[in-house]
C-alpha cells in the first residue's frame, strides 16, 4: 500500500507534464468506460471526447435543432464553415456557402429553421491587415445575412443595406443577432431594436420585442425560450410573440434539452429546474465529468433525446472537440481528501485542478475530493496549520499555500528517502517529464530556469502498514 499511495501522489504531481508527451487529444477517449481492477461499480456519468473531423479546426458558435448540434467554425486553412453533428447517428455534416463580396467575414451563430439555415456575417480586419496597412476603414465594414437552402445547397449572402444601432465604441454599425423563423423570415437584432426580414434583407416590419435584439435563450424540445427582463419566456415564431415568463432560479446560463428538461448551469453544478418555484436538483458537478480543466462545461451544452449531454471542449474561447457525457456504471473508488484553499479556487484558476481532474479520470482505485480550508489573515492561517496537523480525516495537502516556516514546523515530511527506497520510482521520474516539456520537434531549443513543480503531501501513517488509506 505504501508504494501504491506514493505512486498515486507522484502520478498526480507529474500528470500535467506527462500529458504533453502522451497520446494526442484527437482520438475518442472513454477513461472510465470500463471498471478497472475492481468488480464493484456504481451509477455515474462517463465523459467521452469526440474528435472534430479533419475539415473542422475549431468552433465559435453553437445552436441545436432536434437531436443535432449546429456549429459555426473554422477550417484548418482559416476559412469559415458550418458543421452539424447528429448525436443519434454519430455523423458529421459539412455545409459550405458563398460569402459573396464580404471582406474577411466572421460568422455570428447559426440558426436553422425549416429547410433553411440562416447566419449573420460581419466583415473584419485581421491583425496582419493592421500591420501591413491593407485593411479597410472601420466605417466601410458591414454585415451580411447568409441564407442557405438545405435541399439544393444554394446560398446567398446579402449585405445589410441599412444602419442599425451605433456601438458604444463608435465603430459604426452593430447588429447583435439573427434568429431564423422559417424558410422565408428571420429576426435581425440591433441592440434594442428588432427587424423582421426576408432572405434578401428586405425589412418586412419592426416588431416590438421585449427581449431586445440579442435573442439569448435556450430550447426545450420544440419550444425556444428567450430572455427578457422578467425571465425566460416561450417564443412563438408564427406570431413573433412571447408568452408568460417561467421561473428557473438565479442566473441565465441555460442549456438546450431535447429530453423535456429545463437545465441550468449554476457555479460548478448542472441542475434540473422546477419551473414552478425555480428550485434546482443537482445532476452532476462539471469538474467530475471533465477530462481536463479546459474541457470543463457549463457555458453551452445540450441534452439529446436519449439523455446524453454534449458540450464544447478544448480551447476556452474556441472549442476544438465535443465532450459527450453518458450515464453508466463507473468504478467505486476510495476517496483521498485534499485540503486546499477552497473548491472555487480550484475550479477557476489552479493548475492543480487540471491534475486532479486527470488523476480522477485515470486512477482505478482512488478519487480526490477537495476539502476547502478557508482562512483570513495570519492569525487564522496559524490556526489553520494547527488544524491541519491534528485532523485525521485529510489524506493530501496542497503545499502551495503553506507559509515558509511550514517545513520547520514538522508538518511536512521529506519524501526523497521514500522514493529512493522504492524500486518502482526514482528521482529521474521527475527529470524526464520536465525536459520533455521543454522539448519541441525533437530538439531542446531553450531551457526554462524557473518552473512550478506541483507537489502534495500526506500523513505519515497513510504510507505505513495499517494506515487509514488502507481501508
Task: Give a summary of the structure in a few sentences.
15% of the residues lie in helices and 36% in strands.
What does the main sheet amount to? 8 strands, mixed
Strand order of the largest sheet: 1-26-25-24-20-21-22-23
Shape: globular
* Number of DSSP strand runs: 32
CATH class annotation of the largest domain = Mainly Beta
The CATH architecture of the largest domain would be 6 Propeller
Tell me the number of helical segments per DSSP (H or I, 4 or more residues long).
7
Query: CATH topology of the largest domain, anyone?
Result: Neuraminidase
Into which percent range does the helicity of residues fall? 10-25%
Average residue-wise pLDDT: 80
Radius of gyration: 26 Å
List low-confidence stretches.
1-28, 32-38, 166-171, 464-471
What does this structure look like?
The chain folds into 2 domains: 2-40 and 333-470, no CATH class; 46-331, 6 Propeller (Neuraminidase), CATH 2.120.10. The chain is built from 7 helices and 32 strands. It has helices at 2-21, 127-132, 343-349, 351-360, 377-390, 416-420, 428-438; strands at 41-51, 58-65, 68-74, 80-86, 91-95, 105-113, 116-123, 143-149, 155-159, 165-166, 173-174, 177-180, 186-190, 193-197, 203-205, 217-220, 223-228, 231-236, 241-242, 254-257, 263-266, 269-273, 280-285, 302-303, 309-314, 319-331, 334-340, 366-372, 396-398, 439-440, 443-444, 456-457. Strands 1-26-25-24-20-21-22-23 form an 8-stranded mixed β-sheet, with no helix packed on it. Strand 12 and strand 13 form a beta hairpin. It starts with a helix and ends in a 14-residue tail after the last strand.
